[in-house]
Amino acid sequence: MFKLLIVILLSMLLSSSVMTSGHPSSDPVNETVQSRPLASAPEDSSVRLYAVNPSQGLFQSAVLEIGQQRHTFQWSGSADISTAPQLFYRDVNGDGVREAVVILTRASGTGVELQELHIVNARTMEEYAVESAVDAVSQRVHSSVELRDHNRQVHIAVTIDGVTHTINPKASVFYDDPAQFTKYLDFSSVVMYDAEQLPLQATLSGSVSPTEFVGDLDLKYVYEHERFRVGPIEFEASSPF
Questions:
Q1: Is 224 contained in some domain?
Q2: Deepest of 61, 113, 149, 217, by most Cβ within 10 A of its Cβ?
Q3: With a threshold of 0.85, does the pTM exceed it?
Q4: Is the dihedral of CA 204, 206, 210, 213 positive or negative?
Q5: Distance CA 59, CA 84 (A)
Q6: Contacting residues for 153 by C-beta, under 8 A, at least 6 apart
């Protein structure tokens, strides 16, 4: 009888420890989840993002919390304050229900800024399919860089969906030696997303060298067939080009 009483008491204690978890969720609470969120949505403070087991300023997975719901995603990125994730809670697909929008920084440094976009259904905690901005540009944008007029002029052509835009800056406006420029614009080193304005947007900067950028591609996302894809793409030359 005494042993049975001890078993019952232990069972009650264990049940109590589970029920009083600080973060209600259908997911088991992971002891490595940071207590302080990486980001909170300005639209709703109950929407938060937590790093799981961050190390040396990076995390390999994260927990998204929307009210009483929690889910762990295999997202990786920077946990540093200067490049911490951005989190928004707003209706981005026009269905009248808000979604969680997460922008992660994968790499940051001189001439490099790589971000990643995730959109989560707040009711199901499932991710929407989002077309990569880099993939869309690689398929729809073509460019060329050519020296002309005895290397005194740089002819740059950017073709988007078959329509070509050109700029012809003088070689003297560049800091780097134009003879060392790439034969095409590199749009892979600066990839940034913006969820503060709708529609969702991405900006990819085009460079002719590791530190010399000549213009930006501005991408707008559209929501079709339960996925976000890249819609219109426009090129804007940087000053003084």
A1: yes
A2: 217
A3: no
A4: negative
A5: 11
A6: 147, 168, 169, 170, 171
